[in-house]
Specification:
six-stranded antiparallel barrel, Thrombin, subunit H, 13 strands, alpha+beta, six-stranded antiparallel beta barrel
C-alpha cells in the first residue's frame, strides 16, 4: 500500500473518522499484515509524543507570558547594578529559577523575605543561629520518630536480599492476588506492599507457568479484607483499538499508564495473550490492564524489546480458565472472580482512585 494512502487511513482510523465498513476493513488489514499493524502502533506513539511536545511548548510560552506580565506590572523587579555585590551575584546565578518559581507558585514575596533575612545587616546573627538550631532539633526528632515507626512495622528482615519484582492486584476480597509467574518464581518468601507503604505477608497458592500466572494469598493480621472489588473481569474477547489503562509499580510509587489494544494475539501469534500499545517497565509485570468500563481484560506479562511502547498481556479469559483448572485439582481453592464493575460510567480519575487501593507492589525474597 502507498505510504501516503496508509498514513491517511491510519490518521482517519485513530481519529475515529472511518465508517464502520472502512474500520472493519482496515482492522482486517492490520490482522493480515504485521507491517501495517506496526505502522499504526508507531504512528499512534509518534502522534502522542508530538502532542506531549506541543503541550510542553505551550506551557513554556505561558510561563514566559506570566513572567513578562509580572515584570511589566512591577511585581517581579529586576535587580539593579547598584545593589550589594552578594545580592547581585545571588540574583545573577538564580534569576531563571526564581522567575519560573514565581510564575508558577507565586512565591515572590516569600523569596524576597528570605533574601532580606539572609543579606540584611539589621537581622541579629544570634536570631538566625537560634532558628537554625531549632530547625536542626526538629529534623533530628522527625528522623528518630520515623526510624521508630519503621522498627515497629518492620516485617521484612533488614538483612534479607529483597527484589522489587513487579505488581499484583486483588482478584477476590478474601485476599487472593494475581501476578506474573516469572515475578515470584523460585521465591522463598513473598511480601506485597500497598500504596501507603505497608508490607503484608503472603503465601503462594499456585503457579501456572504455561500462562505465566501466579496466585498469592495475603496471610497477614494487618490485612483488612474489603467487602468487594470495584472492578470486574471480562470474559468476552476485547475489541481491537479498545482504549485501556494500567496501574503498577515500576518504581516505589503507583504509576498510571494508558494506551490501546493493538492486536488480539501476543508475540508470534500467541493466543494466550494480546498486544497492548502502552509504555511499561519490568516492574509493571503482573499489573492489571483495564478498559474504560472498569473491567480487567488482562494481566501485563512482558515487554517486546524490539518495539518501544509495545507490551503483552495474558488475557483475563486465561486467568479464569487457570483458576477453574486448579479448582478441579484442589477443591479447597475458594476464589470467586467478580464479573460486574461498579465503576462503569464514571470518569477516569475517579476510577483510578477507586482501584489503586487494590494494587500492590511485589517484594520477593530469594
Amino acid at each position: 500500500m502507498d505510504q501516503i494512502v496508509l498514513l491517511d487511513r491510519t490518521e482517519r482510523y485513530l481519529r475515529g473518522e472511518m465508517t464502520p465498513e472502512e474500520r472493519f476493513a482496515f482492522e482486517e488489514l492490520r490482522k493480515e499484515k504485521q507491517e501495517v499493524d506496526q505502522f499504526v502502533v508507531e504512528h499512534h506513539l509518534f502522534a502522542a509524543n508530538l502532542e506531549t511536545y506541543a503541550e510542553m511548548e505551550r506551557f513554556k510560552a505561558n510561563l514566559y507570558d506570566v513572567h513578562h506580565t509580572l515584570k511589566e506590572t512591577g511585581e517581579l523587579a529586576e535587580v539593579k547594578p547598584a545593589e550589594t555585590g552578594r545580592l547581585v551575584a545571588f540574583w545573577s546565578k538564580y534569576r531563571r529559577t526564581i522567575a519560573v518559581a514565581a510564575s508558577i507558585a507565586g512565591i515572590t514575596a516569600l523569596l524576597t523575605s528570605t533574601v532580606t533575612l539572609i543579606f540584611s545587616p539589621k537581622t541579629p546573627i544570634r536570631d538566625i543561629e537560634e532558628l537554625r538550631r531549632k530547625v536542626n532539633t526538629l529534623e533530628v526528632r522527625t528522623n528518630t520518630q520515623d526510624r521508630q515507626i519503621k522498627a515497629v512495622n518492620q516485617k521484612i528482615d533488614p538483612n534479607a536480599a529483597v527484589t522489587f519484582g513487579g505488581t499484583s492486584f486483588l482478584i477476590d476480597p478474601k485476599g487472593y492476588l494475581v501476578t506474573s509467574a516469572h515475578v515470584v518464581d523460585n521465591a522463598r518468601q513473598v511480601f506485597v506492599q500497598n500504596k501507603d507503604g505497608q508490607d503484608l505477608k503472603t503465601e503462594l497458592v499456585y503457579i501456572d507457568k504455561d500462562r505465566d500466572l501466579a496466585v498469592l494469598k495475603i496471610k497477614d493480621q494487618d490485612f483488612i479484607a474489603p467487602t468487594s472489588l470495584p472492578y470486574g473481569f471480562r470474559k468476552a474477547v476485547s475489541d481491537l483499538a479498545e482504549p485501556v489503562f494500567t496501574l503498577g509499580y515500576p518504581k516505589d510509587e503507583i504509576v498510571y499508564g494508558e494506551g490501546y489494544l493493538s492486536a488480539l494475539t501476543g508475540l508470534k501469534g500467541d493466543t494466550l495473550a494480546s498486544q497492548i500499545a502502552i509504555s511499561a517497565n519490568p516492574g509493571n509485570s503482573g499489573g492489571p490492564v483495564i478498559n474504560r468500563n472498569g473491567e480487567i481484560i488482562g494481566i501485563l506479562n512482558a515487554r517486546q524489546t524490539q518495539a518501544v511502547g509495545v507490551v503483552f498481556a495474558i488475557t483475563s479469559r486465561q486467568l479464569i480458565r487457570s483458576i477453574e483448572e486448579h479448582k478441579e485439582k484442589d477443591s479447597s481453592l475458594n476464589i470467586k472472580l467478580p464479573t460486574r464493575s461498579t465503576i462503569r460510567g464514571i470518569d477516569r480519575i475517579q476510577q483510578v482512585k477507586k482501584i489503586d487501593d487494590y494494587i500492590y507492589m511485589v517484594k520477593v525474597i530469594g
